[in-house]
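Feature request, filed as a ticket because there's no other form

It would be nice if the structure record came with a short human-readable summary line next to the tokens. Right now we just get the raw output. Example of a typical job, pasted below so the devs can see what we mean:
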Amino acid sequence: MQKHKRKPLFFFLIPYMPWLLLLLGIDLFAVLLLWIADAQAFFAMSVVIALAAIGLFSAVSYVLIRLERKKEQTFYEFLEQPDEYHEELLQKAVSLTDRDAVRKLGDCLREQQKEQIRMQEKICDYEEYVEAWAHEIKTPLSLLTLLLDNRREELPAGIDYKLDHIRNRMQESVDQMLFYARLKGARKDYQFEHIHIRSCIEELIEDYRPLLEEKEFQIQYSLADDLVYADRRGLCFLLGQIVSNSVKYCSEQPELYMTSFLEKERYVLSVRDNGIGVRSCDLPYIFEKGFTGDSGEGRKKATGMGLYLAAEIAKEMGVWLRVGETRGSGLEMQVVFPIVR
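Raw output as currently delivered:
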């Protein structure tokens, strides 16, 4: 059961303060009457009267505090497990006028619990459907990849690049959908390990090679064979979204630079292009879901999901995705990794 912050004792007496003050007033009035009736007897019994008043006030306060603490504890237990048993315990702890409200609250909480269970079942069904669909769509994608690998020479000139483009776009859309479901789902299956960043980049460039060659990208990277601590699938997806954006919004003579450096005990991977970039007024919003900006015709067809998913995956892995250069000089995205030894 969840622990709750312990409240000061006087807090439980606040609802009863008018009655306690009335009790104190009655004691003082009785003392005043005794003093008027017989001042000598009053002074003789003053100590006894004071002790009796303090004892009575303390006893009443002690009983009230215990009752309120028990009521509070019973109420918290009822909130965490609003079944009929805990509802009955709470009804015994509260006054008669509050029992009807407790009954209605119990009915409402139990109905919400049932609705939450139904929604959780729907979410699980949706996750299973998405995973099954993604598994099924991989078959035609694999066949298309096999065709391009083995029969590329038999295809008319230019068709192989178009098929490569289609395959990469389909694969990217499937990956986005899977990672979105992964982020929003209740189950997480990240596998963190030390990854050679250079090998990860080389694998990524190989995956995007048809698109990069079609756009005639000049690729330069200067990376040490450093280790970063992350989930490999998540990291490849994150970097893939950055490279995909560079391809979508490239210039006439596109270039892609990848470098790494250390910054205050952190490892920074920089991916920079010379494309159309992002307007400075749009920079604060580029990681928001659905944001596309107005940098060129290409963004009108964008979904605004790529960098959003990349930023969310970065948070899940405990790394930091940030932006550098603005429009006119391309765009630089930096992935900052904490050094884990």
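Something like this underneath would help us a lot:
Strands lie at 192-196, 218-222, 227-231, 255-262, 266-273, 320-323, 332-338.
The chain has a mean pLDDT of 81.
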